[in-house]
Amino acid sequence: MTGTATVMSVWVLLSVGCDALTCYVDDLSPRAVGDSLWFCVFLSTRPARKMVFQIKVEEAAELDLQGSRDFALENLSQPLYTWVATSHTGSSEALDCRNATDMELRGHDVSCPQIYAHATAVTQLSNLVVNLREGRVSSFAWDNSCSGCSPSKCLKSSQSLSEENFTEGSQFFSKGTCGESADFCIGTPAACNLKVFVTWAGTDKHGRNLVSAGSRLSKLAGPTLSSFYNTLKDGYSQASKALGQ
Length: 245
Ligand SMILES: *[C@@H]1O[C@H](CO)[C@@H](O)[C@H](O)[C@H]1NC(C)=O
Ligand SMILES: *[C@@H]1O[C@H](CO)[C@@H](O)[C@H](O)[C@H]1NC(C)=O
Ligand SMILES: *[C@@H]1O[C@H](CO)[C@@H](O)[C@H](O)[C@H]1NC(C)=O
Hints:
Elements: E1 3-4, E2 6-7, E3 12-13, E4 22-23, E5 36-43, E6 49-56, E7 61-65, H1 68-74, E8 80-86, E9 88-91, H2 100-106, E10 114-117, E11 121-123, E12 126-133, E13 136-142, E14 154-155, E15 177-181, H3 182-187, E16 194-203, E17 209-210, H4 222-242
Parallel strand pairs: 1-7, 12-16
Antiparallel strand pairs: 2-6, 3-6, 4-9, 5-6, 5-8, 7-16, 8-10, 11-15, 12-13, 14-15, 16-17
Bound molecules: 2-acetamido-2-deoxy-beta-D-glucopyranose (3 copies).
């Protein structure tokens, strides 16, 4: 069962400057199952953009980031990344996941960078597992794989982004994320908005175990996953035909 995330804002274009990337939207008290938690989703446009979401702990939710496709297709010459932050004080730059100190200091506030689009392909869906420890976010894990798609549609994420201009670092995660060809996205107006499927692991403030991460997509076997991506693709084609586009 998938819940619906509450979208609290449209994309906000962040001004240029050191303090521009922040995500302080709610108090930081520990949460129980069913309580709401706020997140910011960032996009590495220049300047960056963010959108704010509220999701209930332990409810699997799909964030549909409306409008992101236009940013992805606007400039395919530079890779576009996303990352997620929980409400926190301080700056919300994507985590440097080559750097153990950064992961230790900020891993409970922000996620590693996750590729959304590059010159030839655009991801369709990214899985995010939110780990809670006694009701507080302890870490984020992007949990994707390319077992459902061909190598040409497998996008790899850099482990870090430059803080100045979001240029990719040279070290990449070994597991990729399935995408669709940029040509398909350009030709199919309803397709290719960034979607983030959120599930939960760990414990809430009463020590109850969160189990929704057990239903995350990477648990599906390759053939199931590839038929899932095809369904997603057909869905877009049908939707855009219905729109007469
Ligand atoms: C697209 O990105 C490239 C590389 O960063 C940059 O040189 C170029 O000016 C950008 N084009 C537009 C239209 O933003
Ligand atoms: C690693 O992260 C820490 C904490 O954010 C930072 O102070 C340090 O400069 C980083 N090291 C490198 C090599 O980037
Ligand atoms: C991005 O910033 C880095 C410094 O962090 C610099 O070395 C690099 O040339 C810049 N790249 C672009 C495309 O501006």
